[in-house]
Amino acid sequence: QHVSYKIDVKLDDKANAISGKEEVVYTNNSPETLDYIWFHIWPNAYKNDSTALFQQLMNDSTSEEDLSNITRGYIDGLNFKVDGKTAKTEPHSNPNYIDIIKVLLPKALKPGASATISTDFNVKLPSYFSRSGFADGQFMATQWYPKPAVYDKSGWHEFPYLSMGEYYSEYGDYKVNITLPGEYVVGATGVLQNKDELQQYKSIGSKNATNRTGTPELYKGKTTNKTLSYVAQNVPDFAWFAEKNVVIQYDTLQLSSDKIVDAFTYYKNKPGTIWNNSIDYAKEGTRAYSKWIGDYQYPTVQVFEGPKNNSSGGMEYPMITLITVPDASKEYLDAVIAHEIGHNWFMSMLGSNEREHTWQDEGLNTYFQFRYEAEKYRYNSIFKDQVPEALKNLPVDQFQATLYNAMRQIPMESVIDQPAASFTTSQEYGLISYIKTAMWIYQLEQQFGRDKLDAAFKEYFKEWANKHPQPEDLKAAFEKSLGTNLDAAFDKLKKPGSL
């Protein structure tokens, strides 16, 4: 399927709310006729204790989310129309899934046909937790607009929002207008269309990137509203972040194909920040993944410093990522930025179903993150400062082998390939989806060699970029590249126990 969005919204920074309207052109590329379309209305996940989000968080004994003093969020003001005609809606059959709504089509949508669906909406942002909300004058607009669920060969994927478990989204084109007070700096999916504003970001950001210090000289005292326009093409999501008094860094990076990418980082203006070299981290992470998997396809890569949050190191969206890791070390910050940028491949350009097969995004990405930090620093984000100094003097392949051998000592009995909602704790979810899967990929590297494995990833990327690859598609691409049957390796994904 394909969706094209036109969204106009306004931020009320006093009420911590967003109001606006959207128009979605939904094209039915399936062979079936559709009588309805499921929509995610994610902000309702933050509404009460009965939602799937809260049930998951409250039942997770290892969750570090602090729910003791939060402000709720929700979405309302919906009035769906289809091709100008008022459309009826129905709730999900599960009364706790209030963040899903069925839009009944007044006229059946045949294969190849399109329908224009519009609605107003108002979002009350929660205080920041589980990816979305407001905190200390910063706004994280994620999962913020009504969004059609994926309809693929397996049918509808109308699932509720979860903290432990991410997304599966249709590719779409976006034109988004954001109105907000003039003092705010905004980072968003897509390319900013306001030429004067973009030039200010670039000129101030270039100076800050050169001198590695920076003052937030942008927009002080400009309290009148401005409207920023963004365009993004063929991406599975759109997120934006807004904050006053931030430092911008800007530079460009050139890929081996000679493609030029704009790179921006946005970070808090505070003494002793370790973000002064963040523009280098963004550039180097993008170059490394492009070299290993395939060229970064988007025109810009951006990193925005978010609220400090022990429950999450960061969260990725197409072309932009929010980093919430508490200040630790430059090595750890660099690794987290590389990891979140890496999701532009496995979450965005390769639109895998993270809710059914989390490992296909998180685990593959973690394998490359471990390579990045080992090659650059002889560092590993799992062990951090516990890595003995003697190990850091080893060649990188021996360093990696030693660390992976140490990871094998961590009990990880659960099956890798299971739905995100099946994991009982966030600790289990992280160990299996991230670390155990990275170990599985490392075993393939040991079996076939790094060069051949990189070639297999390039084949996978070439065949499945901007599509929705399933595990069997990854397997087929690897088998094609490696020239051998991989049943035994992929069978491990379905079996409990150690690798």
Structure in a nutshell:
About 30% of the residues lie in helices and about 30% in strands.
Textual characterization of the structure:
With 499 residues, the chain is α+β, with helices and mostly antiparallel strands. The chain is 29% helix and 28% strand. It is built from 10 helices and 24 strands. Strands 1, 2, 4, 5, 6, 9, 15, 17 and 18 form a 9-stranded mixed beta sheet that branches. Strands 20-21-22-24-23 form a 5-stranded mixed beta sheet. Strand 5 (81-82) and strand 6 form a beta hairpin. Helix 5 crosses helix 7 (426-448) and helix 7 (426-448) crosses helix 8. The longest helix has 23 residues, at 426-448. It is globular. The mean pLDDT is 95.
Structural class: alpha+beta
Average pLDDT, all residues: 95
Oligomer: single chain
Main sheet specs? 9 strands, mixed
List low-confidence stretches: none
From the N-terminal CA to the C-terminal CA, the straight-line distance is: 37 Å
Number of helical stretches of at least 4 residues: 10
What proportion of the residues is helical, as a percent range?
25-40%
User: What is the C-alpha radius of gyration, as a whole number of Å?
Assistant: 22 Å
- Strand proportion: 25-35%
- SS elements, strand count: 24
Molecular shape:
globular
